Structure formats: structure tokens, C-alpha cells
């Protein structure tokens, strides 16, 4: 991930076909992240327990759509890690519940 936060929407995005998701289930997602500055190409530090755009790690965004209508939109922050490895990949995990909206 090349990182230069400019909005709260910056972070990881993954589109999933809704036919692959069953209602009333809890889904767990995970990713490996390393942050690299666009301007320098060097790795960037973030603070996992911060939710601010300037200090925190990028959020994972889960948006749910029904047809052309967005029915939910959530940002999940990396608050489940005690520290950030500057040069290594950092594992992010979280889960969300699928409702009928």
C-alpha cells in the first residue's frame, strides 16, 4: 500500500460479490500491510491504537451494496495490534456481521 492519507476513506478496499456472502453470518477478514510513502518510496510508521488520519494506520473499509444503493459503510481501524513493524508486513484482522439490509 502506498500511503499518503488525504481522506478518511484512504485504506484497503476489496470488492466482494454479494452472492458469495450469506446473511446472518459473521465474516472475518485479514490482510498483510506495509506502508510506503508516495513521495520518498520509504516505509512509513503508523500507530495501531490511533484512529486519527495523521497518526493512525489506514482503516479497512467495508461497504455493502444492494443493487446501486449503498446499505452500509464501515471503517475498521487496526486497534488490535500493540505495535507496528516499520520494515515488515503487519497482519490486520477484524470481523463484521452480515445483516439483511
Element pattern in H and E: EEEEEEE
Give the biggest sheet.
3 strands, mixed
The number of helical segments is: 0
What ranges have pLDDT less than 50 throughout 5 or more consecutive residues? none
Question: Which secondary-structure class do the elements indicate?
Answer: mainly beta
Number of strands: 7
Please give the share of residues in helix: under 10%
Radius of gyration: 15 Å
Task: Determine the strand fraction and express it as a percent band.
Answer: 35-45%
Rounded mean pLDDT score: 76
* Structural shape: elongated
User: How far apart lie the N and C ends?
Assistant: 31 Å
Main-sheet strand order equals 2-5-6
Question: How does this structure look, described?
Answer:
The chain is an all-beta fold. The chain has no helices and seven strands. It has strands spanning 2-3, 12-13, 26-33, 36-37, 60-66, 69-76, 90-97. Strands 2-5-6 form a three-stranded mixed β-sheet, with no helix packed on it. A two-stranded parallel ribbon has the order 1-4. The chain is elongated, with a radius of gyration of 15 Å. The mean pLDDT is 76.
